[in-house]
Amino acid sequence: MLKIALVALGGDNPDEPGPGAGLAGRRPFGLAHAMAAQGHKITVYARQDEPRQRAITLDSGVQVQYLPAGPAAELPPDQLGQQVRQFAEGLAGRWRQDRPDVAHAWFWTSGLAALAASRSQRVPVVQTFESLGAAEHRHHLPDQGPAGRIRLEASIARAVSAVLAQSCEETADLAGLGVPRAAMRVVPCGVDTNRFSPAGPAARRGTRPRLLTCAPLQPGQGLETLIRALPQAPEAELVIIGGPYRRLLRSLPYYRTLAGLAASAGVRDRVIFTGRVPGGDLPAWFRSADLFVSGASYEPFGLATVQAMACGRPVVATSVGANQDAVIDGTTGMLVPPGRARLLGQRIRELLAQPVRRGAYGAAAADRAGSRYSWEQISQETLTAYQHSAA
After folding, report:
1. Where is average pLDDT lowest: 22-36, 84-98, 340-354?
2. How many domains does the chain have?
3. How far is residue 126's CA from residue 116's CA, in Å, rounded to a whole number?
4. At what angle do helices 341-352 and 355-372 cross, to 10 degrees?
5. Which of helix, strand or coil describes residue 270?
6. Percentage of the chain modeled with pLDDT above 70
7. 315 bridge partner residues
8. How far apart are CA 174 and CA 176, in angstroms?
């Protein structure tokens, strides 16, 4: 049995797919539950972002400890770096009382804190970046983090015992930062295949063929590409899940940009913005779709793609990042180069016209998600990395 510390100062937001702020997101907790089920002692260390948060033990036996670091409120990503020192001091204090065998840090701020806390305790640190500043800079994404982030990530990656990359593309970026190949392992995102499965209720829909995507409502997610592709798929509707709650969408400038683009393309009546959807409702939304689509030019972990595959949905996506790893072109869906809206639309139209082929792709997608991306599989691969680091 290993005593494992999962460190989540910032990174994944459980309600908003894609890189961004948040305390301990869905992926750290999904991994924690899977490893606890195998008999390991798991403690998640998260930043206190509400005044009344206290240490709790979840049903799975996972312990969650909240450490003060800055104001007890949610913070944007560019302010998390300022909280590293206080968070690291809290970690070191806890580890002096109960030293873990290995620490797993999520996001670069967590890595800095875990390395600082581990110096006196000699705790090996394993790092998951979720999204690299160098890649975000290359793709001109907003909110790339503070100046110096790329340099800090390179230092973290070279200092930890192992880096768990989430795609083959990320290993190339890490190599560009000077990280030895021997220090990297590709361990992709995991999916709860009990919740995300082909069997279960589906969200209500009309008679139109349904395309569905799930992404933050912000530039760089390929949503413009999907809207531009929609005229190539006559009569199909595009459901976009993400952003703030639906009642708040009109206050978001980028929502107005997308709505205007849809109007100019003549498809405004076929683009549906749901806003933020509770995580418990996501499987039903995926099952309601004929195809899951992604036009992203940058996809660091492909969570929504894998969740849709687990629900038995074929995928038409851009051949980037984790999408390129998850989707087997011509078997579980179709891949197209990024930025090719017309070609993307043609591939969507082809699959919508071939229900038997879509069914075969969907069945293969569910099988691949279950065999490659289940939390059982991902936890085993992660534990192997821990055991090598702790040896």
Report:
1. 22-36
2. 2
3. 13
4. 110
5. helix
6. 95
7. 292, 333
8. 5
Query: Do 355 and 258 share a domain, yes or no?
Result: yes
Q: Please, which residues bridge with residue 42 across strands? A: 4
Q: Where do we find the tokens 């509400």?
A: 50
Output the six-digit token pair for 4: 């494992």
Q: Would you say residue 87 lies in a domain?
A: yes
CB contact burial 150-172 (16+ within 10 A = b; e otherwise): bebbbbbbeebbbbbbbbebbbe
Confidence check: pLDDT of 25 > 70:
no
Task: Look at phi and psi of residue 238 and say left if phi exceeds 0, alpha if psi is from -120 to 50, else beta.
Answer: beta
Which residues, in sequence order, are CB contacts of 73 under 8 Å at separation 6+?
49, 50
Alpha-carbon distance values, 343 to 61, 125, 368 (Å):
49, 44, 25
Are 361 and 230 in the same domain? Answer: yes
Beta strand residue intervals within 27-176, DSSP E: 41-47, 56-57, 63-67, 102-106, 125-128, 162-165
pLDDT, tens only, 165-183: 999 999 999 999 999 999 9
Asked if the structure places residue 197 within a domain, the reply is: no
For 331, the 3-state DSSP assignment is coil
The shares of helix, strand and coil residues in the chain, as percent rounded to the nearest 5, are 45, 15, 40
- Dist CA 323 CA 237 (whole Å): 22
The encoded tokens of residue 387 equal 């055991």
User: Tokens 């008679």, residue?
Assistant: 207
Quote the pLDDT of residue 68: 92
How many Cβ atoms sit within 10 Å of the Cβ of residue 8?
Answer: 26
Check which CATH number belongs to the domain holding 68 and give it. 3.40.50.2000
Strands (E), the chain: 3-8, 41-47, 56-57, 63-67, 102-106, 125-128, 162-165, 184-186, 210-214, 237-241, 271-275, 291-294, 315-318, 333-336
47: containing domain: 3-190+374-390
8-state DSSP, 147: T
Run of H or E including 286 = helix 282-287
pTM here is 0.91
